[in-house]
Amino acid sequence: QVQLVESGGGLVQAGDSLRVSCAASGRSFSSYTMGWFRQAPGKEREFVAGITWSGSSTDYTDAVKGRFTISRDNAKNTMFLQMNSLRPEDTALYYCAARLDWYRAISRGPTDYSAWGQGTQVTVSS
Hints:
Elements: E1 4-7, E2 10-13, E3 18-24, E4 33-39, E5 46-51, E6 58-60, E7 68-73, E8 78-83, E9 92-99, E10 115-116, E11 120-125
Parallel strand pairs: 2-11
Antiparallel strand pairs: 1-3, 3-8, 4-5, 4-9, 5-6, 7-8, 9-10, 9-11
């Protein structure tokens, strides 16, 4: 079973940048399509960004397009989310997730991802 561990969250001001990371265990990371989700208090978990196993294709929710960039380093079993021009509405617990069925397309549905990290908190003050 793959384990995912997020890091890099914190408290920043509006307009600042932050990069969060997701480290994965195991030998099959390069076969997994990965995603970032976030959940704010009182709201449902929502898709933020996804990246295919090779990194050749990405997808973003409209709210973060042009501000966030998802990437991965398969040699280091790590995925990243670079977040620029942060806004107070980006405040949430950010989760990374993996589709453990190999070589799948990016999905915006959380039920398609079967491995999850514990989350890292991102708080943006105005």
